[in-house]
Amino acid sequence: MVIRIIISLLVYHGFLLYIGWNLWRGIKAFKPDVKKRWLVVLSAGLLVAAWSMFFRFAFSEYAWAHWSAGIWLVFAYLMVLVLPVTNATVLLLRLFTRIDRRKLARSATAAALALTVVLGGIGTYSAYSPVIKTYDVAIGKPSLDGRKSMKIVMAADTHFGALSGPSHAKRLVKMINEQQPDLVLFPGDLVDDDIVQYVKQGIPEILRGIEAPVYASLGNHDRLEAGDTSLISTLEDSGMIMLYDDVVSEGLPVTLIGRKDRTDPGRMSVAELVAQANPATPLILLDHQPYELELAEAAGIDLEVSGHTHRGQIFPANFITNRIYENDWGYLQKGQMHSIVTSGYGFWGLPLRMGTRSELAVINVNFE
Fold first, then answer.
1. CB of 78 within 8 A of CB of 119?
2. Which 8-state DSSP code applies to residue 53?
């Protein structure tokens, strides 16, 4: 374990050295006579910024700690995308052209800066401007109240807190209410690791504005206890009915089954939960992490809604989630079961999405 930590720190600081070297060369391209003391200032600034990601956990009660870590992660990610491409392009131009080196350095610096700004703008927009993804599902069972159809709005991975804050929460409420759903489902990761910022940002009061019944389950980032406040009671105060290995059907057209998260060692199996339900009713499962879909299918689940994957959130992580999960985003049918996995309404770590969009899922369900 110690060796892994040392290696990780060496790699991380090697990455910082790479960023710092590029930034210094970019500065010198426009100001060749810059004093060496500014190199010390740049190095110190990079070290402070790089370690700001740990401030988030040490000072979680302060929003600035979350924002400093988030901004650094955005910058670091963009440097991973931009700098290797810039360096390779400069190397090739040096080898195969006679462009003046200073002129080339200035052009490369300007191009890298412009590309960073453009990519940052696209990624921020993709994170904070959710789209609506619509699905049509047919369940071959009659509803409990005789209706032939219903509209469900589903949002996962809201990660409400300092970064995914009040404005994003108000946007969610507005989008949900515009859909006029019969039911709202939140399958996990409502909170961004702790409840402190969730409460401080006034998220509970905002979510109480949803004009439809809301049912939710927990995800891996929904810590059961944070600070002095109970997570479940706080979420219930947000207008949600929490399903924590629970089965409910009273007053509903369907039977809802909400599982504890996969990280909870005490959670019941899908089969054990389904045994508490009437199998002749439409069975809808909220399970944050979309693993072992075959077990849900075998248990008789008709519709499973999940999140967790973020569809990778940032390129090229989408290729990784696609390899890990049978359904990492969108719709998949297994026998009689429909699996719908959302890319998430919020984001984690950095307030950025690249190659994915924040989204709200609208599910139109037709019954027999």
1. yes
2. G
User: How are strands ordered across the β-sheet holding 183-187?
Assistant: 131-139, 359-367, 149-154, 183-187, 214-217, 241-242
Alpha helices by DSSP H, the chain: 2-30, 37-51, 55-58, 63-96, 101-128, 166-179, 195-200, 203-207, 231-236, 270-274, 293-299, 317-324
Angle at 18 between CA 85 and CA 4, to 5 degrees: 115
Reference 215, options 284, 160, 263; nearest CA is: 284
pLDDT single digits (tens) 127-181: 999 999 999 999 999 999 999 999 999 999 999 999 999 999 999 999 999 999 9
Residues 277, 303: Cα–Cα separation, whole Å: 14
Instruction: Decide: 78 and 120 in contact? Cβ < 8 Å.
Output: yes
Residue 226 — very low, low, confident or very high, per pLDDT cuts 50/70/90? very low
CB under 8 Å to 255, separation ≥6 — which residues?
Answer: 144, 247, 248, 249, 277, 278, 281, 282, 283, 284
Over residues 243-293, the pLDDT tens digits come to 999 999 999 999 999 999 999 888 999 999 999 999 999 999 999 999 999
Q: Name the DSSP class of 361.
A: E
**According to the model, what pLDDT value does residue 101 have?**
87
C-alpha to C-alpha distance for 355 and 77, rounded to whole angstroms: 13
- What DSSP string describes 340-351? EE---SS-SSSS
Rounded mean pLDDT, 284-305: 97
Q: How are beta strands 225-226 and 229-230 bridged, if at all?
A: antiparallel
Distance CA 258, CA 260 (A): 7
